[in-house]
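Long-time lurker, first post. I've been practising inverse folding by hand and with some scripts of my own, and I keep getting stuck on stretches where the structure tokens seem ambiguous. Below is the full token string for one chain I'm working on. Before anyone asks, I'm not after the true native sequence, just a reasonable design that respects the backbone. If someone could post their per-position residues I'd love to compare against what I wrote down in my notebook.
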């Protein structure tokens, strides 16, 4: 008896199925290879973009150094820093050394960058600020009177070198009970954002009640008795900041200085802002020396004598932010500069934000 053999049609069908299976397997392998290659190409492009972005960011920092250095060489502007000058985003002079320099949308290769510069002397140094000034700042920011001592003592406990807790303050034993736990700094505050770790300092107090920055982070927008922003707008941690620049400080900062009330702080800002009452415009009238404060409405010679201990008209430390864009991908780079002289401007720190 003969064994049954598949007919020729059945053999062809089996062969066709095998071929189709082989094609499917090859298609899957090819697709996987294509995806892998696409990922590799994207990673390579990203790596290239990262390198380009870093070079663009560093170019922005170098441009900031150049602008700040050249500012001191402009005739008639070498002895002060003000918001109408080029480094601060102001118009500058039409015939000065920086007239043709732009800090916005600087095209370089495939990317571009924008540089923003702000002096650290526009704020008070948090590490050397006395408790009375902190109290005044907190009250102006609308903090409840019952919470003020707790926040002040907690800030002082955070920045002092010991583990001794003040009456209303907090040391490591308190912070270790939190989730996640951490310890008190017990040393000078290196970055103003450390305040967010201090007992009693809320996100709203740090950024400002009703501030768009707080709202963008999902924090509730609250109503404050003041429109001066938050602690981040009043204080800096730049170690060399000893005096406040009256040409760049806000009225909210100026009124925290001894002898300066709300009215006098507003008068100082109005005097330097010129007839349009707007800082950073062509009609600004910045102070070339503290003696020119005598032109401020309501100020007394004794007030000027007092302010000479706490104020100046020049800045030495500058915060730089470089916004970099490559292939519609944007990142922010930040640096801090120490302008000891026009030819000696050092970079204290630099990093991606």
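-- Answer (accepted) --
I ran through it position by position. Result:
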């Amino acid at each position: 008896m003969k064994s049954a053999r598949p007919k020729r049609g059945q053999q062809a069908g089996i062969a066709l199925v095998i071929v189709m299976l082989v094609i499917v397997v090859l298609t899957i392998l090819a697709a996987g290879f294509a995806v892998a290659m696409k990922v590799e190409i994207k990673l390579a492009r990203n790596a290239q973009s990262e390198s380009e972005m870093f070079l663009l960011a560093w170019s922005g920092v170098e441009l900031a150094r150049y602008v700040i250095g050249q500012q001191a060489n402009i005739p008639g502007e070498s002895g002060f820093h003000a918001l109408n000058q080029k480094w601060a985003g102001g118009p500058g002079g039409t015939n000065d050394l920086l007239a043709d320099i732009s800090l916005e949308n600087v095209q370089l290769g495939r990317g571009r960058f924008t540089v923003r510069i702000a002096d650290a002397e526009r704020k008070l140094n948090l590490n050397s600020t006395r408790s009375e000034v902190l109290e005044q700042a907190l009250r102006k920011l609308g903090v409840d009177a019952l919470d003020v001592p707790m926040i002040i003592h907690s800030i002082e406990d955070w920045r002092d070198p010991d583990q001794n807790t003040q009456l209303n303050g907090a040391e490591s034993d308190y912070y270790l009970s939190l989730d996640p736990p951490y310890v008190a700094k017990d040393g000078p505050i290196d970055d103003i954002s450390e305040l967010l770790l201090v007992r009693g300092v809320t996100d709203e107090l740090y950024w400002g009640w009703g501030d768009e920055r707080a709202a963008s982070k999902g924090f509730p927008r609250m109503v404050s008795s003041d429109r001066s922003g938050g602690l981040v707008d009043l204080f800096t941690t730049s170690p060399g900041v000893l005096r406040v620049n009256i040409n760049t400080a806000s009225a909210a900062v100026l009124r925290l200085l001894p002898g300066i009330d709300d009215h006098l702080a507003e008068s100082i800002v109005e005097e330097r802002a010129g007839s349009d009452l707007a800082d950073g415009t062509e009609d600004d009238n910045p102070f070339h020396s503290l003696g020119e404060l005598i032109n401020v409405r309501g100020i007394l010679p004794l007030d000027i004598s007092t302010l000479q201990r706490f104020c100046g008209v020049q800045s030495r430390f500058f915060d730089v932010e470089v916004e970099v864009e490559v292939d519609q991908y944007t990142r922010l780079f930040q640096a801090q500069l120490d302008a000891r002289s026009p030819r000696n401007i050092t970079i204290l720190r630099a990093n991606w934000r």
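A couple of notes from the structure itself: Residues 130-234 form a domain with the Ribonucleotide Reductase Protein R1; domain 1 fold (CATH 1.10.40.60). The mean pLDDT is 88. Happy to go over any region you disagree with.
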